[in-house]
């Protein structure tokens, strides 16, 4: 069906609820995942990758200047906070967030130990 300017117009009965998928991913109202093991594996892998990246990048920056490593880590973490807060309740992305945050903390701990 086309409208006045030739654009497509989709009509639905007014009493039919709009289906936005399985859940409202912005509101965190998603049902429990069917396969939580997949999410746990994704979280674990993300934690490992994030920890290794933070530690290695921090060691490289520490070789230049310890203050540079601190400033870069604070700026990057501060910039990531708004996105992480939005994504933590998203249906699929929450597994990545739940792995990335502990991974960053583990990476900072490893960086502190290795930089001494």
TrEMBL record:
UniProt xrefs under InterPro entries: DUF2537
Region of interest: Disordered: 1-25
Keywords assigned: Membrane, Transmembrane, Transmembrane helix
Record has Protease as a keyword: no
Record field: transmembrane: 35-61, 67-84, 96-115
The protein's name in its UniProt record: DUF2537 domain-containing protein
Biased composition (Basic and acidic residues): 7-17
Coiled-coil annotated spans: none
Pfam families: DUF2537 (PF10801)
Domain of life according to the entry: Bacteria
């Amino acid at each position: 069906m086309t409208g006045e300017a030739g654009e497509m117009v989709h009509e639905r009965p007014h009493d039919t609820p709009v289906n936005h998928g399985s859940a409202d991913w912005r509101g965190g109202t998603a049902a429990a995942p069917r396969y939580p093991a997949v999410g746990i594996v994704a979280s674990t892998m993300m934690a490992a990758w994030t920890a290794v990246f933070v530690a290695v990048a921090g060691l490289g920056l520490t070789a230049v200047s310890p203050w540079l490593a601190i400033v870069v880590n604070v700026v990057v973490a501060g910039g990531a906070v708004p996105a992480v807060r939005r994504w933590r309740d998203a249906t699929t992305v929450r597994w990545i967030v739940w792995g990335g945050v502990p991974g960053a903390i583990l990476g900072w701990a490893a960086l502190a130990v290795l930089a001494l």
